């Protein structure tokens, strides 16, 4: 009942926007006890952001990663603090390593020829999980915890709106998904 919540906007498809947001937030000189990284795109056609990266990777993962890095000092000063990263069960259906077991950066921001929307989404969500786990290992001794969570299918969203096939699949699967 005493919480103060303020909304600020930023564009995760622009690293410059993320940086401006972080600077504006820091200028307020207020604590940050919880940061929820929830924005995502799904099933969008291949395109590059103004930063030259594939949009699903940048919006779903890299923008959040950069934001948390820029606000790292604020989170530490605000301890106890928490970062919640919304991921997806779809992270289980992909890999980001090459055949020798090394991280393959070309899979994270693929060329148009190598792009498949569902795989791009899955990979971005795997990156969310790995990031959250690493963040928790690094910052939890300092009073900042990080958790990656799958939001479930209880609340309908239009994340699948980019292609009618995804809309059909989501509609057909909905009666068989878990909910409260």
From TrEMBL:
<protein>
    <submittedName>
        <fullName>WWOX oxidoreductase</fullName>
    </submittedName>
</protein>
<keyword id="KW-0560">Oxidoreductase</keyword>
<dbReference type="InterPro" id="IPR002347">
    <property type="entry name" value="SDR_fam"/>
</dbReference>
<keyword id="KW-0521">NADP</keyword>
<dbReference type="InterPro" id="IPR036291">
    <property type="entry name" value="NAD(P)-bd_dom_sf"/>
</dbReference>
<dbReference type="GO" id="GO:0016491">
    <property type="term" value="F:oxidoreductase activity"/>
</dbReference>
<comment type="similarity">
    <text>Belongs to the short-chain dehydrogenases/reductases (SDR) family.</text>
</comment>
<dbReference type="Pfam" id="PF00106">
    <property type="entry name" value="adh_short"/>
</dbReference>
